[in-house]
């Protein structure tokens, strides 16, 4: 199902009935990231959106994806709801969520971030590295001989996935043409943004979240491996609740980890 916004069409998937709950996925993932978690969340309608350039949503025309550009189409989505919604956000979606919460604080009842505490460190060194990669043709449309090959590629991504988890992600954004298989997501996403938010930007937004906030961190996840967790948790508002769970970065998608994540989340969302 797609919804029209002034900024292009957004594809979404829905599960369940009850409290409307917006779900935002991570970088190069899509709405299928919540296919295991959503049915385990009690008494709510989970509406997972493919962010622009991802999944089956429209691509940007200007070639880059800045984090803050996800906000206008999501604000339009929120305007279709009269009351408040809950928000669940994983990884890059969890970087978008604090910006969205500051832009429309009255729209959110509760927010859950999954293995997300702001973006990776970014400064002049990272900018120079990005500029030197500009000659790479990230928009080249790579093709594969089968969807099975694509699943194997996704399993070996920056954050490794099991076969079943990778299959969920791939089948939602793969298509076949003339006997070859392609990704539907925009190849420009792989280049990243030349201008990114810095630590004080994330801190400013996270600290201003007014509603109840839960941060679920994976014991073997991306946050634990790459970020200074004590420093980042100091950015959180005083009402924030931090819960550690077993598993990796996609703990909400892996079948041997998602039940624990759902229990922890259900307890928070039902309070």
Keywords, please?
271 residues; 9 helices; 11 strands; 3-stranded antiparallel beta sheet; Rossmann fold
What does this protein structure show overall?
There is one protein chain. The chain has a single domain, classed as Rossmann fold, CATH 3.40.50. 29% of the residues lie in helices and 21% in strands. It has 271 residues and is α/β, with parallel strands linked by helices. A hairpin with a 2-residue loop joins strand 1 and strand 2. The longest helix has 12 residues, at 92-103. It has helices at 71-78, 92-103, 124-132, 147-155, 163-172, 199-207, 222-226, 229-233, 258-269, and strands spanning 2-5, 8-15, 19-24, 44-49, 85-90, 108-114, 143-144, 174-177, 180-183, 213-218, 241-245.
